[in-house]
Specification:
Elements lengths: L8 H15 L11 E5 L11 H19 L3 E5 L1 E2 L3 H14 L9 H15 L2 H8 L10 E2 L3 H16 L3 E11 L4 E3 L4 E17 L5 E6 L10 E4 L13 E3 L6 E6 L11 E4 L5 H10 L25 H14 L3 E14 L7 E10 L2 H12 L4 E3 L3 H10 L4 E2 L1 E2 L9 E3 L5 E3 L3 H11 L9 E2 L3 E2 L2 H4 L2 H4 L10 H6 L2 E6 L4 H16 L4 E6 L3 E2 L16 H8 L1 H10 L7 E2 L2 H28 L20 H25 L3 H24 L9 H18 L4 H11 L19 H23 L8 E6 L3 H14 L2 E6 L8 E5 L2 E6 L6 H27 L1 H6 L2 H28 L1
Helix pairs in contact: 1-22, 2-17, 3-4, 9-10, 9-15, 16-17, 17-18, 18-20, 18-21, 18-22, 19-20, 19-21, 19-23, 20-21, 21-22, 23-24, 25-27
This protein binds one RNA strand of 75 nucleotides through helix 10, strand 25, helix 18, helix 20 and helix 23.
Length: 885
RNA sequence: GGGAGCAUAGCUCAGCUGGUUUAGAGCAUCUGCCUUACAAGCAGAGGGUCCGCGGUUCGAACCCGUGUGCUCCCA
């Protein structure tokens, strides 16, 4: 078999994904095993794969694949969210291109187009996830508007209404004038805007004099119903309880006093417009001020404004200023920078507005959800998000759940012509209810609410409703899979979604929805900017997969992303991933080369060689025994890191185990001489190690590991479902011996480098040690690694050589060439200085009585060892200096 | 205005229970190698005021206070 020079991912990836699907490895059915369940955060049906999804789903796939290899019944549920606002916007845009306006369509016609759109474009993202290797159980693909799911959402609304937790109320909301819809607070994005601050003079009503207020929204003057000052403000004390006249429209309004007003902003006097400002509304409630709604739902001025009726409020803002000036009410204009809210979806400037909306009262439902997280019944990773969560939950506000949209779950409220209403699952039921108080009513007269529910009002049911937890209560699936294990999501939706899922879990299932929540970071570009369509800084993920391979993309995004920290995405990380693929590929090539040779030779080495407690007689024995222990140790480390959701550290650890320990050390140590055959037992052992490495890496990089696993040997199974062996203990003695060997090799190579001894020039190595036996076991490896043609043991200094000290042992390198004694001396003096200072600091510590009294015994012992080692080392350096003469 | 978080090498970040650390990794940089698995590589090296100040402690990158700068969330 001829292996290509470099690893080529594309075909390999397609081949294995198809194979895994065909074998049904991703399909999960309840059985006697322990389940491990993850529900995907359903991407918008309108979504296309971006870096955020890539990170998020890589993590979920890693957790799921690992669980699958650990004997659990791994179930990862895919699906999409109907995303009411985003999808409706897309459909409206599509219709506009075809020359159709939404307002010309009936609701049913519009929904027809929307479903058509959803069937055609929705869920592209799910196909893209396959490219990434995500091992989702595709048979379970769910959608938040599936018929069962839809009915459950409606049932939840009716249930909460029945419990008195849903109410209808006129409240100040964020209004998107473009979409003509209410926005939740979370859908408003505040941006810094350069505005103007207008100072406007209001004349007093019943006497001479005036009061000047400052405003950035002069058009709202038409809706003013009071002026407010701080009661402590000396400038205005004489005006408390008096009246002023609103310019241009001559409305008489009271001057009130309240602490809310800050003394030093503007003039210290505030105009109060209860219908168009959140805080003014509060004031209005408190002082029972008149509410004058001067704006229509499209942002134009209403009849109540008296002036500029029908004109857009932003045009009016410009037009009203000259009028104020002409009438002598404008005092001055200042430049002013302030935060203004914009709609997340349409980017329209958000208007605070009074509107009749549906609300969920949150206080009660939030309590168990807060407790579960605070008591660590649900674990947040990283835990720092607990604080954020607590703060929000303790100050939770009611949830506005109605949206003026058609695409979504239609609010199950039905109105009689007189405005009274009933909440019911069907028109017929509503009719029955309404008839009680309206005996004359006919069913034709009642009308269903036109609005839809907030998207999150359906997705908060996701963890149980994908298993039909409400549609078929207590069914076998929900009993088995719920509560789920781990939720992986972005911290930006901790309140939108995570908190509400926890509430829904307790409210409707009497149980938490998941045990762990892993918060990923936000993916940013190299400059630290959030990746977004508008900035155009989001790379095309499929193109990246084509270029580097899915494994490399997964590696690149994972290696740089600690839990909860934002990641600055840089394509060089993908290169690193690709290079890692290539490294694995080349290690495979090396083994295949050895395999071809070993088949020609038969080995007479005892195949029963005990590698757990070997007596290392050959370099291969030592190398093999050492690597076995390294594997044991790293597996245990990785296991612990995964338990703590430190995925990037686990990956780094595996990367270093493979690249450094396996490739750079182990393979070099067992490498036979030029064109020499390899020992069959060593070869078999090496294949086994390589397989174990692939097993360890598989959850992170599924494709190449599966490919190599099968190319290494005939396999009866697939790596994808291979079951991990239990962890084994690592022998510290062998590990220590290995570390010493590495250290000696590096030190000697360094000495060669510094003395410009060419890699090809052999040296003679004299070792001065008290532990000759130790070195005898590894001297073949050592000789090969530092290109020594001779290794001898000595009890005294060897003159005319380069001296290297490692711990208490000394090494004399005989090079047969003239040494540059000046450089050597300088090096040694530098080292001597360092060691002496180090010794001093240790001695200072040890001579401190209080340290010796208070510190733990191990710490003191360690300091003593440091002292002894440094002392020995200083002696060696001094001797080397003498040696240089 | 309220809240949360961050500040460690040129860059991105580890450093978990205060002592194994006069601080680690990857990338970048520099030096030497086209050595027979791999130049997408190999062998090495250099690089730090752990943001400033004060405190607790025998001992602080780590704990406390304070100042500065940055980021995010909410109003």
């Amino acid at each position: 078999m001829e292996l290509t020079k470099n690893y080529i991912p594309n075909e390999v990836e397609a081949k294995w994904y198809a194979h895994w699907l065909e074998q049904g490895y991703f399909t999960s059915k309840p059985d006697e095993r322990e389940p491990y369940t993850v529900v995907i955060p359903p991407p918008n049906v309108t979504g296309v794969l971006h870096m955020g999804h890539c990170l998020n789903n890589s993590i979920q796939d890693i957790l799921i694949r690992r669980a699958r290899m650990q004997g659990k019944n791994a179930c990862w549920v895919p699906g999409t969210d109907h995303a009411s606002i985003a999808t409706e916007a897309k459909v409206v845009a599509m219709l506009r291109e075809r020359g159709i306006t939404k307002s010309s369509l009936t609701r049913d016609e519009f929904l027809g187009y929307a479903w058509e759109w959803k069937e055609k474009y929705g869920g592209i993202i799910l196909q893209q996830l396959k490219k990434m290797g995500c091992s989702l159980d595709w048979d379970r693909t769910s959608f938040t508007m599936d018929p069962d799911y839809y009915q459950s959402v409606i049932r939840v609304f009716i249930d909460l209404y029945g419990k008195g937790m849903i109410y209808r109320g006129k409240r100040m909301i964020n209004w998107d004038v473009k979409a003509k819809t209410a926005l939740s607070d979370e859908e408003v994005i505040y941006k810094e805007v350069q505005s103007k601050l207008y100072y406007v003079r209001y004349e007093l009503a019943d006497e001479e004099g005036d009061i000047v207020i400052a405003t950035v929204r002069p058009e709202t003057i038409l809706g003013d119903s009071a002026i407010c000052v701080n009661p402590a403000d000396e400038r205005y004390k004489h005006l408390h309880g008096k009246y002023a006249i609103v310019p241009l429209i001559n409305r008489r309004i009271p001057i009130i006093a309240d602490d809310y007003v800050t003394l030093d902003f503007g003039t210290g006097a505030l105009k109060v417009t209860p219908a168009h400002d959140m805080n003014d509304y509060q004031l209005g409630q408190k002082y029972q001020l008149e509410i004058i709604d001067t704006m229509n739902d499209d942002g134009t001025m209403s009849e109540a404004a008296q002036l500029f009726v029908g004109e857009d409020r932003l045009d009016v803002r410009k037009k009203i200023v000259p009028q104020l000036e002409a009438s002598g009410h404008l005092v001055k204009v200042e430049e002013y920078t302030n935060q203004v809210g914009f709609s997340e979806r349409t980017d329209a400037m958000v208007e605070p507005r009074l509107s009749l909306q549906w609300w969920v009262s949150m206080k009660e439902i939030a309590e168990p959800a807060l407790k579960a997280v605070m008591d660590d019944e649900i674990h947040f990773h990283p835990a720092k998000f607990k604080n954020l969560y607590r703060h929000w939950m303790e100050n939770i506000k009611d949830w506005c759940i109605s949206r003026q949209l058609w695409w979504g779950h239609r609010i199950p409220a039905y109105y009689a012509p007189d405005g009274s209403f009933a909440v019911a699952s069907t028109k017929e039921e509503a009719f029955e209810q309404l008839k009680i108080n309206h005996p004359q009513l006919t069913i034709e007269e009642i009308k269903q609410d036109d609005d839809c529910l907030d998207t999150w009002f359906s997705s908060w049911l996701w963890p149980f409703e994908v298993f039909k937890g409400l549609a078929e209560p207590g069914n076998a699936e929900v009993n088995y899979y719920y509560p789920t294990n781990t939720l992986v999501t972005a911290p930006e939706i901790i309140f939108f979604w995570v908190a509400r899922m926890i509430m829904a879990g307790f409210e409707f299932m009497d149980e938490k929805p998941f045990a762990d929540v892993y918060f990923t970071g936000i993916v940013r570009d190299k400059l630290g900017r959030k990746m977004s369509k508008s900035l155009g800084n989001s790379p095309d993920l499929l193109a990246l997969i084509d270029l580097y391979g899915a494994d490399a993309v997964r590696f690149g995004i994972m290696i740089a992303s600690p839990a909860g920290n934002d990641i600055l995405f840089d394509e060089s990380a993908l290169e690193q991933g690709r290079n890692f693929n290539n490294k694995l590929w080349n290690a495979l090539k090396l083994l295949k080369m050895w395999e071809a040779r070993s088949k020609r030779e038969t080995s007479d080495v005892n195949p029963e060689l005990n590698l757990t407690h070997p007596s290392p007689h050959t370099p291969q024995d030592f190398a093999s025994a050492w690597f076995r222990q390294r594997l044991n140790k790293v597996k245990a480390e990785v296991d612990e890191m995964m338990r703590q959701f430190r995925l990037n550290e686990a990956l780094k650890t595996i990367y270093s185990l493979i690249w450094d320990d396996f490739c750079s050390w182990y393979l070099e140590w067992i490498k036979p001489g030029f064109e020499q055959p390899i020992d069959a037992v060593v070869y078999a052992q090496t294949v086994a190690y390589f397989e174990e490495l692939m097993e360890l890496l598989h959850p992170f990089m599924p494709f190449i590991t599966e490919e190599i696993y099968h190319l290494l040997a005939e396999q009866a199974d697939d790596l994808c479902i291979k079951q991990q062996q239990p962890l084994a203990n690592a022998d510290p003695a062998i590990l220590e011996a290995g570390e010493l060997l590495k250290q000696v090799i590096s030190a000697l190579r360094d000495a060669r480098n510094k003395n410009q001894v060419k890699p090809k020039d052999p040296i003679k190595l004299h070792i001065q040690t008290t532990d000759t036996a130790n070195y005898r076991a590894i001297e073949n490896i050592l000789g090969k690694q530092v290109n020594a043609e001779l290794i001898a043991y000595t009890e005294t200094t060897v003159p005319g050589t380069i001296v290297v000290a490692v711990e208490k042992d000394r090494f004399f390198l005989e090079t047969g060439q003239q040494l540059n004694s000046e450089t050597l001396q300088a090096e040694l003096l530098k080292d001597l200085d360092y060691q002496q200072k180090f010794l001093q600091s240790v001695q200072k510590k040890l001579s401190n009585e209080r340290f010796v009294q208070n510190a733990k015994e191990e710490v003191i012992a360690l300091e003593r060892k440091k002292q002894a080692d440094a002392g020995a080392r200083i002696e060696t350096i001094k001797e080397s200096l003498r040696n240089l003469g």
